[in-house]
Amino acid sequence: MHRARRLVQLFVGLVLYGTACALLVRSELGTSPWDVLHQGVSRQTGVSMGTVSITVGALVLLLWIPLRERPGVGTVANVILVGLSLDAALRVIPEPAGLPARVALLVGGIVLLGAATGLYITARLGSGPRDGLMTGLHRVTGRSVRLVRTCIEVAVLAAGFLLGGTVGVGTAVFALTIGPVAQWFLRLFGRVFPSPSERMSDRISTRERQPGILRVRSHRTDRDHEPSCADAG
User: Considering only 44-53, 162-171, 210-219, which range has the smallest mean pLDDT?
Assistant: First the structure.
């Protein structure tokens, strides 16, 4: 039952993630670096953004092989569901009528993407392909996660811009706000959907407070490593 709930949580989170990406694209104010790349490739080839997203995700997964990263069910689902839901949402979300509507789409997209990130990461069924690339390079090169992530996203953003992807004020707003928004939702859903080890830790802590009960401490729980928004994507 617990795994079934995690799978539903994962799938809902990824569908919402793709929908949030579509909102950002429709705002025409700029989107995330990876979607700037997807949009640029889409404009050059005529292939839908969702299909480009799936293809790029699959290619990034190939880079996991020399980095010795291990995909999970969430990794594969990430590649497929985000692209499919992105295309589906772009077909039904209308073009914005003016600047206020575009700003609303931008803000709504950032908030929804943060919520989607919190949902699918706290399912703990595998990181996204792009973040596996980041953590793999971090481990192999010894460079900080911050530096590796920055270099990857700057390179992706530059390539997307040169291919015709939209870079605007929304790109900067996204970069400045998505971290705090995603982290807030990660903490929220981490409390709403605790992992089995967290539940066990809570039960042990409760027993420790009861007189006459042998005190037992868990050597390791998932609280030792709170999910990070760096796991998204």
Answer: 210-219
Q: Which residues contact 25 (CB under 8 A, 6 or more apart)?
A: 31, 35, 39, 49, 86, 90, 166
Q: Among residues of the chain, what percentage have pLDDT more than 70? A: 83
- How far, in Å, CA of 195 to CA of 121, rounded? 12
pTM value?
Answer: 0.82
Residue 220: which region, alpha, beta or left (left: phi > 0; alpha: psi -120 to 50)?
beta
- Token output for 228: 């990070």
Q: pLDDT class for 1, splitting at 50, 70, 90?
A: low
Tell me the two tokens of residue 114: 């943060």
HSE-CB for 85 with a 13 A CA cutoff: 20
Mean pLDDT calculated for residue range 48-70: 94
Task: Give CA–CA dist 61/75, Å, rounded.
Answer: 9
Tokens of 217: 């401490």
HEC-encoded secondary structure of 174-204: HHHHHHHHHHHHHHHHHHHCCCHHHHHHHHH
CB distance 149 to 230 below 8 Å? yes
d(CA 119, CA 113): 10
Quote the CA–CA distance of 186 and 183 in Å, as a whole number. 5
